[in-house]
Design goal:
Blueprint lengths: L10 H7 L33 E2 L2 H7 L7 E4 L9 H11 L5 E5 L10 H5 L3 E6 L5 H7 L7 E4 L1 H10 L6 E6 L1 E2 L5 E2 L16 H6 L2 E6 L19 E4 L20 H14 L9 E5 L3 H17 L3 E8 L1 H9 L2 E9 L2 H9 L3 E3 L2 H5 L13 E5 L2 E3 L4 E2 L15 H7 L2 E5 L3 E2 L2 E2 L1 E2 L14 E4 L2 E4 L4 H7 L6 E2 L1 H12 L7 E10 L5 E8 L6
Parallel strand pairs: 1-10, 2-3, 2-6, 3-4, 4-5, 5-25, 6-9, 9-10, 11-12, 11-15, 12-13, 13-14, 15-18, 16-21, 18-22, 23-24
Antiparallel strand pairs: 7-8, 16-17, 19-20, 22-23, 25-26
Helix pairs in contact: 8-9
Amino acid sequence: MKNAVGREIPEEILKATGKDVFKGSFAMHQVAYKAATHTVAPVIDPNYSKLVGSIEDVLKKCGIHDGMTLSFHHHFREGDHVCSMVMEAVHKMGIKDLTICASSLGKAQASLVPMIEDGTVINIQASGVRGPIGEAISNGKLKGLAIMRGHGARVRAIETGETHIDIAFIGAPCSDDMGNARAVGSQSGSDCGVLGYAAVDAQYADKVVVITDTLVPFPNVPASIDMTNVDYVVKVDDIGDPNKIATGAAKPTTDQRKLLMAKYAADFMVHMPWYKDGFIYQTGVGGASIASTKYLAEHLRNDNIHIGVAMGGIAQTICELQHEGLINKIADTQDFDTAAIEDIKTNPNHYEITTSQYADPFNKGAYVNKLDFVILGALEVDTHFNVNVVVGSDGVITGAQGGHPDTAAGAKCTIVIAPLLQGRSPAICTDCTTVTTPGETVDVVVTDYGIAINPKRQDIIEAAKGCDLPIVTIEELRDTAYNIVGKPDPVQFEDRVVGIIEARDGSIMDVVRQVKKDVEI
């Protein structure tokens, strides 16, 4: 059955998942639902201790068994040690058929691959999977299905009960003996700044385990994770390395092509009607997106305009602009570098928000709905303005949705930055390999060869008239790319569906198939 972005979704996948095809970004607006519940083991005896001596012991206390769903957050990004630590203990116990529900998975969790191969883990739910795990899924090694959903959709899935977490493992830089956990305060330097991804896990999981390397006196406040939701606390030697947070896409760029696109994006913004004092802004994790903020700052200074709220994932540049007085408030869901982690410790105008507050489409109003501008990245953009941020042009799962579909749906002006070519592959193409963000929510595409505006946004086209920037059509960008490297051959896939791209409302945006056996990964 075809969905609203023209993708054919196999009937067997709709039947197996119980899901519907994507019908539009706002199809479920004001459709009421009943929130899920969870099991609570009340702590009434004041002599009861939540402290447990080891990961193995806490797994036994939680009643770990085959077929459970375990959850993890990724606030340490490539520096995370908690997921591997827990799963190695699970593996030694011989537990099988598990579902991993993580906010994201990357190279730090590469030790899961043998567990995927031997059936310890049979299903994965995450905003995306980078590195060896993505390769394993693309090669058909996961027995079940990988569900890739954005940050807001993950919260929705848990809140509605579509995903029920049996045990949530929350790495926290410090905690007291009751489970009041904070994202700063580690005596071993393992601060991660915020714990917003883990908030929904703590609220809805049957069992919640805080894993920390620093125990502090009660009460550990203000707490990101409240003791009323925590069953057990385990102290370990090390939970993560904050120096590996700023890795890969989260690093600032020195690439001249990316800097050119960043400048184009910033220069374009100032011509829009939403560029006025107090506008609300977010940039993505990509190097070009981060660089665009630096160029935007030059305009802010010259025009005496201030950003009211900068939100989402936060890096050093945003913090510096806030100190300069160019940004009033920082609403933080994830810290991309140690500078942002340090800033939130002492800056009262830099505050933590949960992923539900940030991007949940099924609550009563999220921060993303107030965005004026968002600047995002892409692996591919097609001539329908659909975007792919998960599957590479070779068909291999290599990225993450993150907040991409959430912010695109919420912002008044969604700007996607993508080079015309990714290596020898056109990033601007007739049809994306996989659709992760629908074109109806993408307004502007900025490349190193020009800027294309979605024809559906006549207001933006009108506002951009007369600006001294290379405005072209999306078809012209595609044609330029094809003229340089040729039209790419379609990616070759097997018939088997190994994953689905889930829309914000839980419907199916696209499917991901196993790559052909003769395709090298």
